[in-house]
Amino acid sequence: MINVNTWKQRQHLHCKVRDFFLKRGLLEVDVPILSAASGTDPQLDYFETLSPTRYLATSPEFFMKRLLANGYGDIFCLTHALRKGESGERHNCEFNIAEWYRTGFSAEDLQQEVLDLANEITGLNLSLKRTSWEQLFEKVDFERLKAEHNNWTPKEIEDYAMSGIIEPSLGENCAEFIVDYPPQRAVLAKIRKDVACRFELYINGIELCNGYEELIDAEEQKKRFSEDLEKRKKTGKPIPKTDDNFLAALEKGIPECSGVALGLDRLYMLALGKKDISEVLLFGDDEA
Which CATH architecture fits 4-280? Predict the structure, then answer.
């Protein structure tokens, strides 16, 4: 358990985050933690309850997009998210998240706003750097990795290279946005000119956020859900109930927008000079 002075420092930062959005005219919203449906992302594992089955939210995204379809405009949410099996120096199964959506914003517009927030909270005054997904791997010796891990799939090798070789050096003394993801890694982002309009931010080797110029095509979203579920089946992962209310919102019509989810605990780690996420939480996984 952290001491009270650290908690007071964290709460001061938390108030600054809320003020940042309010001063820019965003409306704060509050959405459920429990849902009758879940996202399908093959990379995420969710918690669920029994009788009746409910899913603990891995993010507030689908609820917020339903609000967008009902004319709520620019919105933000400061809430908790839960992801199964994520624990370590930078991971906690339950964590704090800031998620927001900007109508009429491109991915590049939102990247600048993310940087503005990061600089205001950390006081680092970092410059913006963009690196394409393809550029990340230019110096990786894939032949050596394939020889060392000959039973791995190409995606597993790529993921290993990203987390074990590339990530630690990203965002050295800058805010480095990874952009132009391959279409197969689009998740919920639009695809334009054969690249996904998706971005992630790294500062001093720490991943802070994941953002999209949002996919608003209901038919394409249904297709991606189906593809995700097939991937989950192949890897033996549980199959969640897909969110029909979210799909109905897409069919109703969501405005052109960009959205991003940012890990607040990691942001506070940077601001307070902490090395472990447990140093900014009252009760981490080991104490909850």
Answer: 2-Layer Sandwich (3.30)
